[in-house]
Specification:
By secondary structure, the chain is α+β, with helices and mostly antiparallel strands. The chain has two domains: about 80 residues, Glutaredoxin, CATH 3.40.30.10; about 130 residues, Up-down Bundle (Glutathione S-transferase Yfyf (Class Pi), Chain A, domain 2). Helix content is about 60%, strand content about 10%. Strands 2-1-3-4 form a four-stranded mixed beta sheet, with helices on one face. Helix 1 packs antiparallel against helix 6 and helix 1 packs antiparallel against helix 8. It is globular and about 50 Å long. The termini are far apart. The structure holds glutathione. The site of glutathione (GSH) has 13 residues, from helix 1 and helix 3. Homodimer. Keywords: Transferase.
Length: about 220
């Protein structure tokens, strides 16, 4: 078993996407918690690992890797027994890549504005237009879900990436079930397919929503 050190925080969706990938690959990790709210990521020792001061970071026996999507691809390529989670077929891979970029550029970007706004800029209320941006992202995902999983008929790392952020967002920006049946069905399918779903992703998503609500309450009193 390789010695993989994982710099992580359970509140962080991209870290949970790594957890889902690692479990699917049957790997083990040595976890080191990076307390983002306490500023651990801005300390010189962490900046040496990742000048962009983000989690997740992986140290695979001396090779330092940053950025969840890059890390997931690396882990599947290096340790996967087959290519199901990240297909080598060009067309299938392009479909997975499209949804990985959708997660980064749309889902996560729209969530990150809100988490920064509440946690680091200390606002109490989420601006209405930012809520609408998230709801528009829900619509894009709903309309993209034409198969059982986000990039086609099989579960891939694109599902791990997207569910880590969508499940987090759903905890604080409600998603109407009647108008998003495909997303609810997909989330249900993911939970059913992944016996460790709650432990690896669901609990962290719930904790993030709770932390946002607590920060909003604290910011209201300021
Ligand atoms: N696209 C990156 C996003 C990483 C990211 O922004 N992580 C957040 C936590 S969810 C972070 O570390 N923020 C601290 C900062 O940006 O200073 C990935 O998928 O790894």
């Amino acid at each position: 078993m390789p010695n993989i050190v994982f710099y992580t925080l359970d509140l962080s969706p991209p870290c949970r996407a790594i957890e889902l990938t690692v479990k699917a690959l049957g790997l083990e990790l040595e976890r080191k918690t990076v307390d983002l709210l306490g500023g651990d990521h801005l300390k010189p020792e962490f900046l040496k690992l990742n000048p962009q001061h983000t989690v997740p970071v992986v140290d695979d026996e001396g090779t330092i890797l940053i950025e969840s999507h890059a890390i997931m691809i690396y882990l599947v390529r290096k340790y996967g027994k087959d290519d199901t989670l990240y297909p080598t077929n060009l067309i299938e891979q392009a479909r997975v890549n499209a949804m990985l970029h959708f997660e980064t550029g749309v889902l996560f970007a729209r969530m990150r504005f809100i988490t920064e706004y509440i946690f680091f800029k200390h606002h109490a209320e989420i601006p209405e237009d930012r809520i609408e941006y998230v709801q528009a992202a829900y619509r894009l995902l709903e309309d993209s879900l034409t198969k059982d999983f986000v990039a086609g008929p099989k579960m891939t790392i694109a599902d791990f990436s997207c569910i880590s952020t969508v499940s987090s967002l759903m905890g604080f920006i409600p998603m109407e079930k009647s108008t998003h049946p495909k997303i609810y069905a997909w989330v249900g399918r993911m939970k059913q397919s992944l016996p460790h779903y709650e432990e690896l992703n669901g609990n962290g998503a719930t904790a993030l929503a709770k932390a946002i609500r607590s920060a909003q309450d604290a910011n209201r009193k300021k």
